[in-house]
Amino acid sequence: MKIAQAIFATIALGSLSFGAISAELLSKEDFKQHQDQYVKVGSITTSGETSPSDAKEELSKKADALGGQFYVVTSADTDNKIHGTADVYNKK
């Protein structure tokens, strides 16, 4: 699990961009500091991705489909392929 957290932390600090309208990945720490500013709109999952960037892109697309502005990764597993879950939020 620590490896998966490190992978997603690295992604969060990376400079990948998927466009101005794509949902933004929030770190758990950033979310906790300002959680009163967000309202949850759903949860998403991804599975079978082959790279961390693919998993991030898939989660972002699914958050967009829910109409979310932000998503917070809640779990990740790297058993052969990357599987992840995230909660999706909008600002209040």
TrEMBL record:
Q: Which UniProt keywords apply?
A: Signal
Alphabetical list of InterPro entries matching this protein: BhsA/McbA_stress_biofilm_assoc (IPR051096), Dodecin-like (IPR025543), YdgH-like_sf (IPR036275), YdgH/BhsA/McbA-like_dom (IPR010854)
Q: Where is the signal peptide?
A: 1-22
Where the record annotates domain YdgH/BhsA/McbA-like, the positions are 39-90
Query: Which top-level group of life is the source organism from?
Result: Bacteria
Q: Show the coiled coil region(s).
A: none
Name of the protein:
DUF1471 domain-containing protein
Source organism (scientific name):
Buttiauxella warmboldiae
